[in-house]
Write a structure and sequence with these properties.
Blueprint lengths: L1 H8 L8 H20 L9 E6 L5 H9 L3 E7 L2 H10 L4 E4 L12 E7 L8 H11 E12 L4 H14 L7 H8 L3 E9 L8 E8 L3
Parallel strand pairs: 1-2, 1-4, 2-3, 4-5
Antiparallel strand pairs: 5-7, 6-7
């Protein structure tokens, strides 16, 4: 049922109202942060990027438009979402995979991006362990999600679940516990475009060798 929900939204995702106040601002922040931290010269060695939960490929498209040296892989468990992304981003690699099966990926990445899909993972602790394995030693992870950090956010996010299915929106404290011992926090950016919108937390994470 969960995959059917996301397949349903695949061709409508670009038009959702949350694009303006939540999804697009998250992508903009990540793009700007990457520009500040990575050489975008197309003549340098390819930088391998994993977009986990890539959806219809909006971020992949923006990355390809801005960073010619990026070798991008998009992963999603929704075939509908992946089909939209494949059409939009024919040069990117796409893998139909549930996050619980990340152990099937053997390639390592310089950058891993996970935006707004973490709350839907059934085994987030296992996911963090696998992401630690997939990230190179000096790589970075950008992980953004709606954060249930107070009662208002939890109340608003309870309505989101009605259209997307079961989800767990971690608070800052719960997220810090979740990433331990696999990552440490380099930076936290809070995005809240409008007072009525839930708080979006975007973490930049560094790998801990364990």
């Amino acid at each position: 049922m969960k995959q059917e929900i996301w397949n349903f939204w695949a061709n409508k995702y670009d038009k959702l109202w949350v694009q303006k106040f939540s999804l697009k601002p998250t992508r903009n922040y990540i793009l700007n942060h990457i520009k500040e931290n990575y050489n975008i010269d197309e003549n340098i060695e390819k930088i391998k990027v994993l977009d986990l939960g890539c959806g219809p490929g909006e971020l992949i498209e923006e990355l390809q438009n801005n960073f010619k040296s990026f070798d991008i892989t998009g992963v999603d468990f929704s075939e509908g979402m992946l089909n939209v992304s494949k059409t939009r981003n024919p040069k990117a690699k796409h893998i139909h995979l549930d996050v619980k099966d990340l152990n099937k990926l053997k390639e390592k990445f310089n950058i891993i991006i996970c935006t707004h899909s973490l709350p839907y993972y059934k085994e987030p602790e296992k996911t963090m362990k696998e992401l630690n394995r997939l990230l190179i030693d000096d790589g970075k992870i950008y992980m953004g999600f709606a954060s249930g950090n107070n009662l208002y956010d939890k109340f608003i996010l309870s309505f989101v679940k009605l259209t997307t299915g079961p989800a767990n929106y971690p608070s800052d404290d719960k997220f810090k516990h979740l990433i331990n011992p696999y990552f440490k926090i380099e930076k936290l950016k809070i995005i809240k475009e409008k007072s009525f919108m839930p708080r979006i937390a975007v973490y930049t994470l560094m790998k801990v060798n364990i």
